[in-house]
């Protein structure tokens, strides 16, 4: 019986295992040192905040794995020998495979700051990260202040988590507003004000220079690049993630930032595949980055590689870009491409509408000459994914999208509707610029 071994039990690896089992009777072994069972990584923050328990974020009951003949091995892979088709493990004998799927995910990116080795310096990516956070910051008595370095989704999640326990938070962001590397300036400015309104000491245009420790090796303060010392007990690193590929450095598997794969998620070694955060596309797909640390793309890769391993060779096709998140009280959705001022092309232009009284806004991106609709960001307004996906597929104009915008509404029945106001401002803006 053919033996498929999957390294990593995140959404990519587990999806691959589930779909291989649906399609075949292959022997499946999942190896992970992080946790005994798959859990919802996006729900980690809600465990800390008290909204969920650990057992609530395990989507499958304990008997699921045995019932589906999926073996779970909690161990750490130290190296891969692709010539003998064996994995070398930290705590067990070598494990042989016929086909190997690398789904090792990512970890917090560090930048060699002095003091980053101290107790109390951490990211928020793994189960172990959350367990460490519970020890360091169980309450405001033990953790008086935290400093978060960076931004993005992990940074704002960590800030919200800590504020629910009344822990003081200083947030160091090197840009002039929150997440300007991704968002247009009006949205970033609105989010900065919203984050600050939750009692976060949000410091723009500043960076970390050094982390200071006490005699016991614990964090006691940070120094910014401006030389300002901020006392703290925790330093949360939110400067992005990097693929977990160090254990492959002596293997024959080609790596760059991630594990290099083709459109079928195949590495340079036959019968070895890579999916999820650790995979790097040799040829980027459209405007997507070569490495994508995104939950839903990992899930698509898992389903795709399962088809290929079971005889139906299938190319990875993630479709149109979309994502969603929450920034404290503001829900965010994006469909298509809406680039920041730093990244948008010359031909991309934006229409931005904001409610004058509430933190609700949208930004529509479109081609300046052809008026082709490129994408939309929404804050505080829920939209339907399938509608925008269809409009992007049909290559609709921005004028069509504005006219039909209410068809994409996904807000509950009694929510205030803003589509007439948005349409009126768009028409006024078009008249003024004509």
Mean pLDDT: 95
Q: What portion of the residues fall into strands of 2 or more residues?
A: 25-35%
Large-scale geometry:
globular
CATH topology of the largest domain, which one?
Answer: FAD/NAD(P)-binding domain
Number of helices: 10
CATH architecture identity of the largest domain? 3-Layer(bba) Sandwich
What proportion of the residues is helical, as a percent range?
10-25%
In which order are the strands of the major sheet placed? 3-2-1-7-19
Low-confidence stretches: none
CATH-level-4 superfamily name of the largest domain:
FAD/NAD(P)-binding domain
Q: Report on the biggest sheet.
A: 5 strands, parallel
Amino-to-carboxy terminus distance: 69 Å
Radius of gyration: 23 Å
| Count of beta strands | 25
Number of domains: 3
Class by SSE composition: alpha/beta
The CATH class designation of the largest domain is Alpha Beta
